[in-house]
Known about the structure:
The chain has two helices and 27 strands. By secondary structure, the protein is mainly beta.
Amino acid sequence: MEMFMKTKYKLLxxxxxxxxxxxxxxxxxxxxxxxxxxxxxxxYDANTWGMISPTIPCxxxxxxxxxxxxxxxxxxxxxxxxxxxxxxxxxxxxxxxxLTIHQGTSAVNALSICPSVPVPCPSFVPSxxxxxxxxxxxxxxxxxxxxxxxxxxxxxxNYTIKSCYSGPSSNFTTxxxxxxxxxxxxxxxxxxxxxxxxxSYTVSPAVPPSASVSFGxxxxxxxxxxxxxxxxxxxxxxxxxGSPTSCTATATTTIMITNPFNPSWxxxxxxxxxxxxxxxxxxxxxxxxxTFVGTGVTSNSFCPNLLTPGNYTVTYTVGVSPQCGAAQTRxxxxxPTPIANAGPT
Length: 345
């Protein structure tokens, strides 16, 4: 059940990252790729989003997230990004207009960005200004849908939707935000796989496919339960897909996964075939709570009275998964019951 609970967070985590990583301000120039040392990777708890130590036990309850510490600095960016530019806006834009954005096409994967919770974001367009809203950590493989709405009739103004990185020749769409009639909304759809930037991760040594997930938006999620103990090198690759030229950047960090489980247990003394079942957990000298398996073992007890004389291997396993666990095997001897014979009378 724990593994299921951890896995089902992955879509929700994507939604949270989109909520959190919005940048709204005056119109920006086209951005370049942020490079090290400014571009660096952090390790986060994917439930609380707090930064954590890069030394992590494989028993860590939540998924962990690896992503850039900064996604924007000055005129430089680190993740796929799409920008709305509007203006000059009308004098009543803040009270007359509203903006909502989502990614995806269905109720299952349509990710509402503005103006949803838990992280508030600007849902209004400032009055009498040039205005831009840059969305970082967008998923390139999902379409991005803008709804431009007006509450009451006011002067219309122009808008442009483009990549944060591409030049003017790569504008996705340009049009007019019509403010008549009242209570009217326009839907602007930017197709999936538009050139908003490409983000990817490599993990070395490799982990099972089910242990990692990346949406191509600049986030990497890892399930420590499925990772063997050791040091992992994680490299982030970003290409802006800019026009006419692209910028690229890489950043690397390391994490250490530790395994706290100790499967040590003491070997019982030889047992006779007439002996009752022997309770094995008291023989554990390492981590408790595991299970014993082997011929003659039932409910963590070894039952010599069900066996013939011989040597039997019994394995003690403790942990939460094959990767995040440990095992130790010992041999228990079952001896024939001695028969006393004093000879003839």
